[in-house]
Inverse folding.
């Protein structure tokens, strides 16, 4: 599935109309939703491939949200990534063409965690250079309000709250009968607190 997502991501970027340009690469905003930019990178998530996890029995797990994302780098960030690979005695073959990375995020809505299940370094054709699957679940509540990742994850979850039906339709599975009866306000995506958003204090 991950190879399929990488292939689809590359095809989407290469052949769809684009608007934003960074690190000599165009990102199609009809597929990738821009969230934020820093001095070092631009952050997007794939609003066409985001969906709920499908269990082996082909049923949709409303507690698990899978979201492909990309971040395009500036030249300073590119050099930083290359230098870190050298320091860690990792191959830098092809890294002269590094433009960014793809992160495949797994949100566990019941546990309130996010995990980068795979991080893939990308060249200018958005082909993989190397990948890392060592990410562990991190509590969403542990992020500071203005942390870049916190802001990114908050935007993704906020979007997901408004597009539950779309996420279900794109998940290529079927809902269990019990899940079909869950009221919208009781869905896991509706109940998960947004990271970095403080709860209102009741007087």
């Amino acid at each position: 599935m991950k190879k399929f997502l990488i292939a689809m991501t590359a095809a989407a970027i290469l052949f769809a109309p684009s608007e934003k340009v960074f690190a000599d690469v165009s990102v199609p905003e009809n597929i990738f939703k821009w969230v934020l930019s820093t001095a070092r990178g631009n952050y997007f998530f794939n609003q066409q491939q985001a969906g709920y996890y499908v269990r082996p029995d082909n049923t949709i797990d409303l507690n698990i949200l899978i979201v492909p994302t990309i971040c395009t780098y500036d030249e300073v960030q590119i050099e930083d990534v290359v230098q870190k690979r050298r320091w860690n005695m990792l191959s830098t073959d092809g890294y002269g063409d590094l433009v960014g990375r793809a992160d495949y995020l797994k949100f566990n809505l019941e546990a309130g965690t996010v995990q980068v299940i795979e991080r893939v370094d990308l060249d200018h054709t958005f082909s993989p250079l190397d990948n890392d699957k060592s990410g562990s679940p991190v509590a969403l509540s542990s992020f500071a309000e203005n942390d870049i990742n916190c802001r990114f994850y908050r935007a993704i979850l906020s979007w997901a709250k408004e597009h539950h039906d779309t996420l279900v339709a794109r998940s290529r599975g079927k809902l269990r009968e019990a899940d079909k009866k869950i009221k919208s306000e009781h869905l896991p995506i509706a109940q998960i607190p947004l990271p970095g958003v403080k709860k209102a204090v009741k007087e």
